[in-house]
Write a structure and sequence with these properties.
The chain is mostly helical. It has 6 helices and no strands.
């Protein structure tokens, strides 16, 4: 019974995170930035912009990790599950970019998809290496504890 709640919790957490991504990408109002950007130092403004761009790497990499955790809640992680998690995370990135075509002031961006892909690959590399090769690492032990 506890195992079922654990699995449902991870599924709920992942769907909630996907909803957060969707809602966040639905909101953008350039008018709200006009007054704000004129009061900032140019360096701070550039750092904020770089952070937002870096967020793509982290955002979809974290989605990949959430999907992997769902698989781990059902047992040992297998390579096909890693690939499936990556495909689902990337497919969601594509759907989100298509969705942005219909959001005012937003657009479909191949560059954003590339950043999403890089984030997924980086998280895959860390998970794969930690789970299969560096089993005594903190991340490897943590991933095993989910199973």
């Amino acid at each position: 019974m506890l195992l079922i709640f654990k699995r449902l919790f991870f599924i709920f957490l992942t769907i909630s995170y996907m909803s957060f991504i969707w809602i966040q990408s639905s909101k953008f109002d350039p008018e709200s930035l006009v007054g704000f950007s004129s009061t900032l130092n140019r360096t701070v403004y550039l750092l904020i912009g770089a952070s937002l761009e870096f967020a793509h790497l982290f955002q979809f990499g974290l989605l990949y990790l959430c999907i992997v955790i769902i698989f781990l809640s059902f047992g040992r992680l297998r390579t096909w599950q890693e690939v499936t998690a990556a495909v689902i995370a990337l497919a969601y990135g594509i759907v989100d970019e298509i969705h942005q075509l219909y959001v005012p002031f937003r657009s479909f961006s191949i560059a954003d998809l590339l950043k999403d892909t890089i984030g997924i690959v980086v998280f895959w590399w860390v998970v794969h290496r930690s789970y299969f090769y560096k089993k005594s690492s903190k991340i490897g032990r943590w991933l095993r504890s989910v199973t």
